[in-house]
Amino acid sequence: MAVAIYAVEGMTCQHCVKAVKEEVGALAGVTGVEVVLVPEGISTVSVTSANPLDDAAVAAAVDEAGYQLAP
Questions:
Q1: What angle is formed at CA 18 by the lines to CA 41 and CA 70, rounded to 5 degrees?
Q2: Model confidence at 58, in pLDDT bands (50, 70, 90)?
Q3: Which letter does DSSP use for residue 16 in this model?
Q4: Burial of 13 (0-12, 13-18, 19+ CB in 10 A)
Q5: Is pLDDT of 71 > 90?
Q6: Phi and psi angles of residue 25, each rounded to the nearest 5 degrees, phi first
Q7: How far apart are the C-alpha atoms of 13 and 57, rounded to whole Å?
Q8: Which residues, other chains included, contact 68 with Cβ-Cβ below 8 Å and sequence gap of 6+?
């Protein structure tokens, strides 16, 4: 099992959290997604998966939800 933590910009509400959880959760091998929302700041997304994930795939999923990984 692997856990990766990502910083995400632009999330402001629970709708944002739901969108990110759905998109990232749909990636192959993902078994859990937890979000610590920081409205108007940098939120934290913890992703649990069977194997390490490709960061580019996670970034694409976050982008699909309408947000972006923080630098």
A1: 35
A2: very high
A3: H
A4: exposed
A5: no
A6: -65, -20
A7: 23
A8: 8, 9, 10, 59, 62
The letter for the amino acid at 23 is E
- The span from the CA of 41 to the CA of 30, in Å, is 25
What is the model's pLDDT at position 1? Answer: 92
The label of the residue with tokens 């998109």 reads 23
Give the span between the Cα atoms of 55 and 10, in whole angstroms: 18
Report pLDDT digits (tens) over 5-54. 999 999 999 999 999 999 999 999 999 999 999 998 999 999 999 999 99
Domains of the chain by start residue, with CATH? 2-69 (3.30.70.100)
67 neighbors 61 (Cβ within 8 angstroms) = no
